[in-house]
Amino acid sequence: MNRFVERVEPYFLSEDPFVQRYAIEMLEGSYLVTGDTFLTGLKAHDRGQVSEYSSPVLPYLMYMPLNEEGMKEVVKRLKSLSKKDTDVLFYIQLIANADTELLIEYSNDVKPFLDEGQLKKIANLPGLEDEELFMKLADVMYYLDTKEYDQVYFDHGKRIINELVKKGEIKSWEVQIKEEELVGFEIVYTVYMAGEIREESVIPQLVNLFKNEEAEDLLLEEVANALVKIGTEQVVQEVEKVALYGNTYFYTLDVLGRIKTKEAEKALLRLFDLTDDITAKTLIADYLCQQLSTDAIPKIEAFLEEGYDENMLCLEESLYVNCVMNGIDHPKLGEWRNLIEEVERHSLDEQPLLVPQPVQTGDKVGRNDPCPCGSGKKYKKCCL
After folding, report:
1. Residue 122 and residue 196: Cα distance in Å, rounded?
2. Dihedral sign (CA 143, 147, 150, 152)
3. DSSP H helical segments within the chain, as ranges?
4. pLDDT tens digit string along 356-369?
5. What is the DSSP letter of 56?
């Protein structure tokens, strides 16, 4: 198990709801967790709320991979739950995201819960020849470029690429990032390929895409994901150079926050001192806490006194959890805890009039919970 994961995972079972929630968030998008981490998350879910401020755990587990034990457990729960149970849709999404080989192995168990046609398409992938897989990928790209965006199609394209990666059919020359030659979903999938094979030669080209002011959010998200997967010191160095460029700092800082290394922490510390942009500085402060940086604590404490962008997040919560998880008995812990609780009470009392809710949890939405609109973002950064 990765050292950072090993350090954070026990806090999934913390009796402090703010520490528990933040701990699970810290590992999101890091590509460090395993199926065992998911099982720990299930234990946290099964334990239920530890206080009135507890957040539902299942939505936070969507990014975690299933191993065989996890698949068996999720299938068992689906078979025992009523279709009206609020957990059912989360469990279905978990198995829909599972690795192709795992879905095939448990196809009879998952058939009642997944689209039969889509499951059949997935089951056919390992038996296709390389050329057939590339043709299937071309069909997906054509559909996405000419029709309306479809998440199922997009995810299926990634499955096809994963099969090609397993076969060793994605070569370095196939993931060269040439903006003038790649358009539409071809460049999106090329970036995804680069991340899947951890292709270090394209790091400068990937980072340069952050400077493209016409780049779509979907492309920038895939660039960020690919760079985190590669995760080398060179990635940190190159991203730091453009980290505060234009409005893309939401993506560049996210890369540095998700790469859990000392080099990434040092880069964030330098950027914190460099920028005067209050929103960027607020994000950097939060990412430093997600790195469990003790060097950042006095800097962030001073920033709290100066005033930060409270529309982005509750920085007192980030600093509070950072201190708790580092075993630092800071004299302001009680003060920060009281403020966090006040913010939570206020956000729970003031719900929006209209929020699209494809998944109903039956609970009020906390500002740090996943947004019910399904965007994958925190509620405070989305519909709130």
Report:
1. 19
2. negative
3. 3-8, 17-26, 35-47, 68-80, 88-96, 100-105, 107-110, 116-124, 130-146, 151-166, 184-196, 203-208, 217-230, 233-242, 249-258, 262-274, 278-290, 297-306, 315-325, 333-349
4. 444 433 444 544 45
5. P
Take residue 296 and report the two structure tokens written for it.
């950042």
What confidence score (pLDDT) does residue 354 get? 39
* Rounded Cα–Cα distance for residues 157 and 188 (Å): 11
Residue 381 above 90 pLDDT? no
CA pair distance 355, 287, nearest whole angstrom: 28
84-88, 300-304, 345-349, 360-364: least confidently modelled range: 360-364
Rounded CA separation 345/336 (Å): 14
Return the SS3 of 370: strand
What is d(CA 73, CA 28) in angstroms, rounded to the nearest whole number? 21
CA dihedral of residues 140, 141, 142, 147 (deg, nearest 10):
80
CB atoms within 10 A of CB 179: 13
C-beta separation of 217 from 186 below 8 A: no
Residue of 27, 8, 24 lying closest to 57 (CA atoms)? 24
Please state the length of the chain: 384
- DSSP character string of 156-208: HHHHHHHHHHHTT---GGGG---TTT--HHHHHHHHHHHHHTT-GGGHHHHHH
Assess contact for 277 and 250: CB atoms under 8 A: no
